[in-house]
Amino acid sequence: MAGALIVLLFLLPVLYVVMLAFESPAHFLRSPLIPPIASPRPGNFRSAWAQAGLGVELANTALYSILAAGLATVLALLIAFPVGRRLMRGAGLIYSSVAVGLFLPLAIIPLFVEARYLDLWNNRIGYIVLHVEPGIPLGVVLLTAAIASVPKELDEAAFMDGAGYLRYLWSVMVPLVRPGLLITFLYGLLGVWNDIIGPVVLLANPNLFPITRGIYQFYGANERERTLLAAAIVVASLPLVVLFAATQRQLIQATAVGAVKA
Amino acid sequence: MWVGLTVGLGVYVLFGVAPAIGNLAVSFTDYSGLAGSTTHFTGFVNYTAMATTERPGFVGALGATVVFVVGVTLLQNAVGLILAHRLVGNTRGAALMRLLVFLPVVLGVTIVGLIWILIFNPQAGPAAGFLGLFGASSAFFGSSGAAMPLVILVQSWQNVGFSALVFIGGLRAINPEVYEAAAIDGIRPWRRLTSITFPLLAPSVTVNVLLAVVGSFTTYNLIYVLTDGQNGTNTLGMLAFTSAFGSSADLGYGAAVSVALFVLTLAVALPLLALLRRRERRLLV
Questions:
Q1: B218 to A105: CB separation less than 8 angstroms, yes or no
Q2: Can you say whether the dihedral through the CA atoms of A237, A238, A241, A247 is positive or negative?
Q3: What interface predicted TM-score (ipTM) does this complex get?
Q4: Model pLDDT for residues B228-282, shown as the tens digit of each residue
């Protein structure tokens, strides 16, 4: 009974949009709530793809989120290792000032001002650079904890062998803290992928728009084309659903265990 | 080592710390971001404007923010707790349903917002069809009475999976021996819930309540998608955004509203944290 209610509440809205994506406009006007079993219209997807420019937007989104989240993960590791190993004085202070970043509000207004002055506004490189920082605090918190649980003797043995700093990080530390790196990357990726305020404020050229602003724009410009909007939503959701299906075990595990610890 | 550390911290300071402090700097100016306009230092003008009729909307936004924060915090945590209680188990069904309730977190505000815009489409959406069965109708997000409750509903729907997972983590951390001892003592299910499960869940309650309060004070991206701040949903975060990037292009005033919102968030969150921590200590001894 309770299970049925949960399915109703969380699955039905999604199924409704999928159903709508297969309806023809005439079917939608006549009987919008009845599944179009007799006359499904897969052509909606092709029309939505072309009219909303989903191809370019998805490519932009993938480029922005993979690069920004990747850079955030690398930088978080470069901060977390010396901090976790306490290789310098003030390591604790550095840790807490970065961890505070989890609670800093994303100040979009000054960020816009900075972007204008630093020439990071309305261009791809700028958009990526501006999206690296939000992923860093969580990464430092996760990776410092992960690194602290790796025995120090490993460092000493490796450095005795004459391994360089980066080489050591890459070949010894990275494989050992892989789960932490994955979660840092995933949460960073989702943050960039799903951002809607950033694209509205930091981009003006439609060729640079990511998928979020793209489908929102499409909705605003085609108020009456509900079936095409539904098809666009389904297409935009698919990469996220696939990503979620592939990483759900780690994502769910880390969220359930991690939040209270942190 | 130093190069890596410096680059990492540099990015954090330049694009994380500097903007957070920068709000304060921008709030004392009349910066517009428009080409060809000059920027002046204007002192506290943006702050005094909040209280006057010269810039209407601040008091209304304050009220909308309070309603939004209280509504989301209560709904998201109550439903999150019920979901966690149902989905904590190790069965296949429970595992699948955990994925289902977490899906909206992954899909993000734009997709979730548009899904609910389609459902609450006043002309031909399923919600309109349902109301039609009773001869009723509503403009939903276009109605001043319904917009705020619906925005609270969608915001909670989007994030409740996260709350539920945190509660599940808390439930699993409870030592099963406590329940075994209770079973031997013949404690009934309701008493077990009120005097064992709920008290021992106190750390998760702290995390979830605090995240919901801080989150709902500061986020406005879903409101932007659903209503663009119309029909009584203009919270302070939304007001700051529209002041800065709407037609008025008044970044100084927007920044001042952001600063006020930040102070308000701290003024609520810090005492709340102290209160919840004290509650943990009281319940966990």
A1: yes
A2: negative
A3: 0.92
A4: 999 999 999 999 999 999 888 889 999 999 999 999 999 999 999 999 999 998 8
- SS3 of residue A35 by DSSP: coil
SS3 assignment, position A104: coil
Q: CB-based contact (8 Å) between B12 and chain A?
A: yes
Distances (CA, A) of B137 to B88, B121, B142: 39, 11, 12
**A198, A188 Cβ separation under 8 angstroms:** no
Tell which of A15, A108, A200, A226 to mutate to test the B interface (max B CBs under 10 Å).
A108
Decide: A228 and A48 in contact? Cβ < 8 Å. Answer: yes
Q: How many CB atoms lie within 10 A of CB B194?
A: 10
Report yes or no: A112 at the B interface, CB cutoff 8 Å.
Answer: yes
What is the chain A residue with the closest CA to B266? Answer: A103
Give all domains of chain B, ordered by start, each with its CATH number. Answer: 45-284 (1.10.3720.10)
Q: Which two tokens stand for residue A57?
A: 């937007």
| Span A103-133, pLDDT tens digits | 777 689 999 999 999 999 999 999 999 999 9
For the record, the structure tokens of B253 come out as 């005033």
| Residue A53: strand, helix, or coil | coil
Read off the DSSP letter of residue B41: B
Chain segment A20-62, per-residue pLDDT in tens = 999 888 888 777 777 887 778 888 999 999 999 999 999 999 9
Cβ–Cβ under 8 Å, residues A201 and A113: no
List all residues of chain B from 48 to 77 with a beta carbon under 8 Å from chain A: none
- Residue A161: burial class (beta carbons within 10 Å; 0-12, 13-18, 19+): exposed
Domains with residue ranges and CATH for chain A: 53-261 (1.10.3720.10)
Q: Are B49 and B253 in contact (CB under 8 A)?
A: yes
Chain B within 8 Å of A91 (Cβ-Cβ)? no
Q: Do B8 and A136 touch (CB under 8 A)?
A: yes
Cβ A234 vs Cβ B107: under 8 Å: no
Residues 135-154 of chain B with CB under 8 A from chain A are none
B266 touches chain A (CB under 8 A): no
Mean pLDDT (chain B, rounded): 91
3-state secondary structure A75-97: HHHHHHHHHHCCCCCCHHHHHHH
H-run or E-run covering B164: helix B147-172
